[in-house]
Automatic annotation (TrEMBL):
Classification lineage: Bacteria, Pseudomonadati, Pseudomonadota, Betaproteobacteria, Burkholderiales
Family the entry assigns: Belongs to the short-chain dehydrogenases/reductases (SDR) family.
Name by which UniProt lists this protein: SDR family NAD(P)-dependent oxidoreductase
Gene3D superfamilies registered for this protein in UniProt: NAD(P)-binding Rossmann-like Domain
Coiled-coil zones: none
Keywords: Oxidoreductase
Organism of derivation: Duganella levis
Domain Ketoreductase as annotated: residue spans: 7-190
Amino acid sequence: MAGIEGKVVVITGASSGIGAATARHLAQRGACVVLAARRPDRLAALCGQIVAQGGKACYRVTDVTRRADLAQLVGLAIEQYGKLDVLISNAGIAPISLLDELRVDDWDNMIDVNVKGVLHGIAAALPIFRRQGFGHFVHTLSTAGLRIVPTMAVYAGSKNAVRAISEGLRQEAGDKLLVTTISPGYVDTELPSSMSDPAAREKGLATMKQMAIPAESIAEAIAFAIAQPDNVDVGEIVIRPTAQA
Ligand code: NDP
């Protein structure tokens, strides 16, 4: 089905930043959006705004590190709207630091959220997409995976793991399923709040202030991929500030 009107779109990481902007944008264009993240107050507020503006939205508090949460989330989409067209696995964290600092808990968390969170989404949605005979996975990666710099090793590794998983998924998907990866550069969001290393957070905030582009730019790029006809797979999108090296 080409276009966005009437599509049922589940979005993880919808409580702020890119996920929230994407939810607003898609709902304005007639999609039914199912919002997911851990903060219930944020989800309730965004859902209320979308519905007040005439859009269709619901939400479920979801921790993507828990496989059962993803199963319940896609279940909510089916229960509310009768189908699932798109799963946007966008939830992510970036507690970056130099490897020498041995912030091993941060490494674990990045793998759990950024990699396993996406796998849990695939496990939940793939059987539904197969049954329906259509479906679209959208995975948020990062330009950090394209140009790897100090402090970003594990974060970039997590995003590149998802890059490989996404390509494998595309290879196995056949002609009925679509797989899109989007790699943003610096985007003005709350991501630095997930940076536990003060030096990395300060640097991240300064770079964001200097050059970050708005989350709406990423939302529009995601919408472009979702709006294509069923036989047009927008595989990879890279979108970054012009000032970014
Ligand atoms: P935000 O911090 O604004 O958004 C991150 C989202 O992920 C929040 O909604 C957060 O919600 C959610 N989240 C974090 N952990 C979990 C979890 N365990 N379960 C469910 N949801 C979770 O940052 P962005 O919007 O920037 O990040 C969105 C994606 O974009 C991420 O994958 C990030 O890596 C990627 N990205 C961002 C860039 C940037 O410059 N901003 C650049 C490149 C990629 P809550 O805390 O309520 O759970």
